[in-house]
Amino acid sequence: MYLSRVSLRADIATTQLSLLLKDRQGYGLHRLFWDLFSDGGSDKQQRDFLFREEIAGEQRVNSGKRRAAPIYYVLSKKPPLRESPLFDVDSKEYRPKLAEGDRLAFKLRVNAVVRREGKRHDIVMDQQQLWLRQQLQNLGIKASGEKGKLKACLLDSAGDTQVSEWKTIIERGPFAQKLEQSLGRRDSMEWAIKTVVERRVQHWWQNKGDRLGFEVACFDNGEPILESVAYQKHHLPEKGQGVGFNSLDLCGEVIVKEVDEFQKFLFEGTGPAKAFGCGLMLIRRL
Fold first, then answer.
1. What range defines the domain where residue 63 resides?
2. What's the per-residue H, E or C state across the chain?
3. Which of 47, 75, 93 is where one domain is finished?
4. What is the per-residue pLDDT for 283?
């Protein structure tokens, strides 16, 4: 395997950046990276690689404003071409030496989903909807519709008892420090939602570890060493209006339990959105 650090060439004008990456929301980046592995054959040939976009340090431009330049990490079965009209490529062989019990820091962008009745459901949206409906059901209210409608209905109907329960949820979770502030009803609800979503993500990640050869490391108090941030929607216009997927950035620590399974996970990635920059786990030995 080969791990490459890829960035746009310095001689590409700033004005060309948006043109080159105008289709970043869909298959555009994947298509661009295909060229790094092209041997002149048909575009139908299989090119197995994973990639992850990150933002390089901010750079000054003529106007005095700053722009963030994207850099990419690409994991591939064969080395990319060193000479590219678009990219500077720094590539090295990737052979991580792993042993059972190794403790590793990681970061991973993932499309986290759960399957139910043959369909994929984004776990963040799924948990928000489940919690809001359960809260309304506890109040004897049957409600349906979008998340915003459910939130509004809950805020209109909840009393002091419910708000107190929300604060208890927050107190027992990773955002307990928020209670140092004076939270109103809406903020209490929002942080309670964030707490139950974070718990759902933790549970999902721990289940992943059981299948992929790792254990989630924990703090002394038993809390998983895991942070989920940068939840965002990505549109796929080539698949139709309104079609897309959500991504979540995870970082934390894991402990290797099954070397072969974990290495397979590193090399093959995870999740259904690997063609869109998800699924590549970057690790660092602690």
1. 2-93
2. CEEEEEEECCCCCHHHHHHHCCCCCCCHHHHHHHHHHCCCCCCCCCCCEEEEEEEEEEEECCCCCEEEEEEEEEEECCCCCCCCCCEEEEEEECCCCCCCCCEEEEEEEECCEEEECCEEEEHHHHHHHHHHHHHHHHCCCCCCCCHHHHHHHHHHHCCHHHHHHHHHHHHCCCCHHHHHCCCCHHHHHHHHHHHHHHHHHHHHHHHHHHHHCEEECECCCCCECEEEEEEEEEECHHHCCCCEEEEEEEEEEEEECCHHHHHHHHHHCCCCCHHHCCCCEEEEEC
3. 93
4. 97
